[in-house]
Amino acid sequence: MLFPKRINYMAPMLASAVILLLLVSGYFELPSISSYSAAPAPALFATALDAVGTRERSPFTSLLSAFADWDAAVGCPRIRAKLDAVGPPGYGANSTAAAAASITGGAGWGGGGGGGRCEDVRTRHVGVLVKGWTWIPDALDGVYTCRCGVSCVWSKSAAAVDRPDALLFEGATPPPQRMKGLPLRVYLDLEAARKPTGFEDIFIGYHAKDDVQVTYAGKSFHTSRSYHVSTEKRNDALIYWSSSRCLPHRDKVAKDFLSLVPHHSFGKCLNNVDGPDMALSMYPVCSTNDNGKPHWWDHLHCAMSHYKFVLAIENTKTESYVTEKLFYALEAGSVPIYFGAPNVWDFIPPNSIIDASKFSSLRELASYVKAVANDPVAYAEYHAWRRCGTLGNFGRSREMSLDTLPCRLCELVSKRGGRNADAL
Known about the structure:
One of its GO terms (molecular function) is alpha-(1->3)-fucosyltransferase activity. This protein has 424 residues and is of the alpha/beta class. Strands 2-3-1-4-5-6-7 form a seven-stranded mixed beta sheet, with helices on one face. Helix 6 (248-258) links the parallel strand 8 (239-242) and strand 9 (263-266). 29% of the residues lie in helices and 12% in strands. The chain has 14 helices and twelve strands. Among the domains are: 123-210 and 402-420, no CATH class; 239-397, Glycosyl transferase family 10, C-terminal domain (Rossmann fold, 3-Layer(aba) Sandwich).
């Protein structure tokens, strides 16, 4: 007689109990539905600048209307997702270290003159006396409270700094020798050539390799200007250009390019608005109302804000030499058309400029500019960095600007020992 085989239930029951115990203890972790939905695979997001020229031509003057069109078509969440997923370089969590290195040589604030270990601070108070200068602004004079408990006095007057720890020279050569007990010699040169004198103890320049780096992204040296920013853009003249230092190579590029696009040229070079001081006549709202004779730089930002684009051509094409010509345009709510430093993206927000080096000819560049000028959605995307907070490397560039120089220099002087530093 055949009997059914007895089934042993104990083994699977014990195995199930062990697995349940491991799950409860957290030894195994099974994926949940929510974990799959919260982390989708990165995808390429097509946004407005990926389709310039494909939308119907739509001339516009209202910047706010263009923003509304872009919000409806793209929007901040989509642009953030795109930048996080696919770049550009210098944006997103995976590029934070690279962004810092490109601006500061990889040392954070330390690469720019400050930062690093507070244990290295040797003096708690530092005085900097500005001795020889050409354009270092008076607005920097003052008392600063800096990192690591360091206080800093920066002044052009010996009444404020009678026993300086450092003497700052810009436009004048430091003394050839320094003895222990005398102030450290600091020399600043932000011009393209960037030439140390050989007599300084600390060199300040625009490059990450310098002892203290300073970018042009600050606001300290133009605090008296009219910062009225127009919400209306011109359609008859697309580009603002202003230059009163007529360099042959720069004027040639400007002349060849501007001949292809409607523009207004202020200043002395290539002027086409009946004189170098016509901005206030054209835009009375730009007056600073100071009852003094206006200078062209007083209304620079305000005037260029009426144009969709600003032509920004550096004096020379040099690595890291990114000057106020570009940053003025960004602050004025215009889109810079940039000719200059090959690593310009190390200093600016993503999708904030039209990089001329990306075009095969000036004619191709001009065609693109005119297409964007008649595409409010694409044009508005060049402003998304400001509206959506996608600053990218611009945040680092601002940190290393002239605005933060007093504290960064004072901290480095403190670490060197100030007046008590050994003579070199």
